[in-house]
Structures are given as C-alpha cells and as structure tokens.
C-alpha cells in the first residue's frame, strides 16, 4: 500500500516524525489508570469505555467498573441493567449491552481469555478495528498501530495525505498508520499520537508555532496562520 502513497516513500521524513514525537512523549504523555496496566481484561474494559468518550470522563468510571466487576466472569454474570446504571454517565447506552455480550461470548467460546488476534476480536459485539488493535497493542504488546480522528489529522497534515471523509474506514490512512509506526513499543507510540493530536495538533486553536514537527510539516503555512 505504501507504493500508492508517495509521501511515505520519504524514509528520512518518517524517521524525523518518529524521533520528534518520541522526544515529545517523554515529557507530555497524559496519565490514565488503564495506561498503567497490560492486563488484557482491564484493557478490554477500558477500550469499550473509551469508545467515542473523552478519557478524562472515563477515568473514574473505569476504576468504579473494575471495583464492581474485577474479572470477565463477574461482568458476564452481571445484569445488563446494573452495568447500564454504572456506565450511564458515559452515554452510548448500547455500550453496556455489547460489553456484557462480548464478555459472555468470550467465556463461552474463548475459555474466558480475551482473544489475542484481530480476527477473533472483530467477531465480538461492539469491537471494531480501532478497539481490536488497541487491545492487542496494550493488552498483548503487539505491534498494532491505531487510527482515530486525532491520528488521521496528524498524518494528513504532516505528510500531506488526503484521506477519505470517514477516516476510520480509510485504507490509505490505515496503511499510513502502519507504515510510520516504529517496530517496537507500538502501544506507547499509539498513545503518543493520541495525546499529540489532543494537545498540540488539534482540530482548532492550533499550536503550530510550538509544534516540534513544524520544520517538516506539510500543512500549508497560510492555513496554519489562519487557524492558529
């Protein structure tokens, strides 16, 4: 796929991108409770709760959820109404039902162990490509890059790539995410991109003058000035 993306033939630029963002991450990564564990069940829960929901909002609910349901077995046995009540502050009311359904299916078909392949994870209720890959990267330390709106925005701006309107389904952007990811510590790399997009390369009120990527960024200078 990278043969179809000329911007990603520039290996020195990719190395620059990696180097600058890794350096930025040493001082700027945010701290959330699910980032302090590699327990597959805890990551599984966190990724369900984080779907279309701000991390700061999720943090207290995540800790309360694990206190009530510390194992896959406990959430699989829980009445959906109880789980819905606990997750109510997060919205997306279908989330509780899908989480419980996924937990029950894992008990029935996977021996109670969180699946460790993308193919199997995608067969579970409520899990798409981003969630599956994030579980693999953080729960199993697999080299699985992720793509969300933050990551897509960084890739489009820095490399001058034009993705599809629906970023989460854009094959070019998914390929780009894979290509620019380092070979090691991809989970931390994913967090770096997510946080950089949330704190620096934002949709509005850009901080381009302070951006560590500015010297090689393809985002047009005129647009940067008009949106800063």
From TrEMBL:
Signal sequence coordinates: none
GO molecular function: 8-oxo-7,8-dihydroguanine DNA N-glycosylase activity; adenine/guanine mispair binding; iron-sulfur cluster binding; metal ion binding; oxidized purine DNA binding; purine-specific mismatch base pair DNA N-glycosylase activity
Transmembrane segments: none
Keywords, alphabetical: DNA damage, DNA repair, Glycosidase, Hydrolase, Iron, Iron-sulfur, Metal-binding
InterPro entries per UniProt: DNA_glycosylase, HhH-GPD_domain, HhH_base_excis_C, HhH_motif, Hlx-hairpin-Hlx_DNA-bd_motif, MIG/MutY
Domain annotation Helix-hairpin-helix DNA-binding motif class: ranges: 119-138
Keyword DNA damage: yes
Reaction(s) this enzyme catalyzes, per UniProt: Hydrolyzes free adenine bases from 7,8-dihydro-8-oxoguanine:adenine mismatched double-stranded DNA, leaving an apurinic site
EC number(s) per entry: 3.2.2.31
Gene Ontology BP, a term: mismatch repair
Domain HhH-GPD: 49-199
Family membership noted in the UniProt record: Belongs to the Nth/MutY family.
Protein name per Swiss-Prot or TrEMBL: Adenine DNA glycosylase
Biological classification of the source: Bacteria, Bacillati, Cyanobacteriota, Cyanophyceae, Spirulinales
